[in-house]
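User: Working on a comparison across species. This one is FAR1 domain-containing protein from Trifolium subterraneum. Can you predict its structure so I can line it up against the others?
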Amino acid sequence: MTSDVCDWPLEFLKDYTSICEDNEYVNDFTFQVPQQEPLPQANTINEGDPFEGQIFNNDDEAYEFYSVFARKNGFSIRRDHIYKSRKNESEDNPLGVYKREFVCHRADIVKQRKVDDVESQRKRKSSRCSCSAKMLVTKRTIGFEEQWVVTHFSNDHNHELLDDKELFRESHNESAGVRERNKYRKPTFFGERY
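Assistant: Here's the predicted structure for FAR1 domain-containing protein from Trifolium subterraneum:
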């Protein structure tokens, strides 16, 4: 080796066992890397995170998946926008739905409306704060099957998330197991189940 090795920056030399000192090589030099504080980790569960390109058999399956993800990460979701088209109407899809948007329960802002009767006015403040976390799924033909593909996913919240010990929202109660049990109950006169 030549003496120009001594001019290398230290980050290039930290993997070597020898270093140049006054044009002489010293073996087994211990290189001290300054300790840094670990970076803060996001509170997300990597197993089961939604990602763009993820495929579901139907939009309900996508909703269930996103709802489970939301529960594990301390927020709740709701169905927001539905995109429809007449050219997508079929026996299986009479409304022509080709895209669904699922959003954080705090997305959007409630528009104030005039209420004539003061007593019928809402007494509590809205919890919505324009949160931009959402998942967009689009119906696509893959092979010969119509499937739902995640075309956009954002997990950017502008509010604090719930902790594991806090109660969860309504969307968490509508999991597949609860819905399956409820469908066998008899409806009452007003459509409620007992």
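For your comparison, note: Residues 13-20, 38-46, 186-194 have pLDDT under 50 and may be disordered.

User: Helpful, thanks.
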